[in-house]
Here is the input.
Amino acid sequence: MRGSSPRMTKEGPSVGYQTKLFIGGQFVDSLEGTTIDTLNPHDGSVLASVAEAKAADVDRAVEAATKAFPKWSRTPAMERGRLLLKLADAIEAKAEELALLESTDTGHPIKDSKILDVPRTAVTYRYFGGMADKVQGSVVPVEAGFLNYVLREPVGIVGQIVPWNFPLMFSSWKMGPALAAGNTIVLKPTELAPLSTLRIAELMAEVGIPEGVVNIVPGFGWTAGQRLAEHPGVHKIAFTGSTATGRKVVEASAGNLKRVQLELGGKGANIVFEDANIKAAINGSAFAIFHNQGQACIAGSRLLLHEKIADEFLDGFLTLAKSIRLGNPLDPKTEMGPLTSAQHRDRVKTYCQIAHQEGGEILTGGQPPADAALAKGYYMQPTVVRAQPDDRVCMEEVFGPFVSVTTFKNEDEVLAIANRTPYGLGGGLWTTNLQRAHRIAQAMIAGMVWVNCYKRVNPGSPFGGVRASGYGREMGFEAMHDYTEAKSVWVNVDAQLPPWYPR
Ligand code: NAD
Here is the structure.
């Protein structure tokens, strides 16, 4: 079944890769037989050639999902939940292998894949497995003589498009609630890192999720993604990616007016007030921007420092940034791995040049590391840039280990800066003043705010943004709501209807 067999590398045991499309319960080649190479971001070597889905393959996958829908949507919710709970167990049983796979394909440090990506993936399927039979309709107190009840029904055939920064975890955020609610799925993983999603498809088949319920079609965005977004047989499209692509998805979805859910970019403001616990703020702010090489939509990529503590904070923050251990993602000591692609690394480098051209001061980093052992990989040093609030590096998403630093004098000023980008995804603040914490949290334009912490997520807590960061929510009851439609049923129990047309 697998594309290649398990093997050893000089870094340790590697895993076999599934490389085919998953359609109708089978792993199949693409119709045209073309493939896409997925590269190891540590050294640029080819990890695997993965079958490339094009429009006709997406059509096949939608057909399979359509065929599976009537039975799956009528499968008792408790049974759907049981299968998701089994999947969560299977993921935990394969935790080591999945962590290795994710780190090899994306460049995530293995310690992060082990303690964050894989456990969060399992926990998400478990949460939605448990929720499957707890989403209830309601009875509405209407006029005497009538019964009105509201059913929550699955939306139907759902298209899902996932980016490369957390492919394993994000596919669980999308597939967990969609499956629990009784939808069938065609998911397009990123062309850059599809391996963990294909492995999950194998585990889904093993635990007994019926054929056609989930279909996985790795391919490029402008072919497979575009077809999925415009497909007349798809009833909802759930997209995670850049704001620019999100707009294209909305346009493509217009043909059949499918429902759209968008998780887009961000430019998180991370505010440190003069009364903050500085040591905690330094540590938390480093995690906010440098975890996963800054490739996180919710990264705290704009540091806003009160002028009274700016020097003290920067002293500690720069020392920490310079001490972060860059290295092979499979080395357990590595704290920052490579960026996921050469193209993306070059984009981050370009932003360093832009910062320089705009008069920003690069306080540390700004280029790839000098270490010859990392020369073939897509590495970038942790980069801290002093800049002005309206500079491009403070307004545009860089999506790398790159943080801008600006100072402020008071709450009004910092709120004006924090709320000045078109985005509204996540933001954070550090303070020991309780009233200020709530005041600022409420005033920030964002879907999520963290107080004295950053980037906390949990399957029960709604995740998503406002404005250019998208709409709709993943996680929690909101996600289940987004994957169901309300149907209102009116029953005449004993009402005498007044004659409408007197005869
Ligand atoms: P991207 O928009 O380039 O690609 C995302 C996905 O969309 C990929 O699978 C890609 O193949 C597909 N795609 C590309 N063009 C398409 C098209 N025309 N039609 C349909 N699909 C298409 O984004 P990326 O570079 O892979 O990911 C980084 C971006 O994702 C960042 O902007 C980041 O902020 C955002 N992101 C958002 C969230 C969130 O939850 N809000 C989470 C992670 C990443």
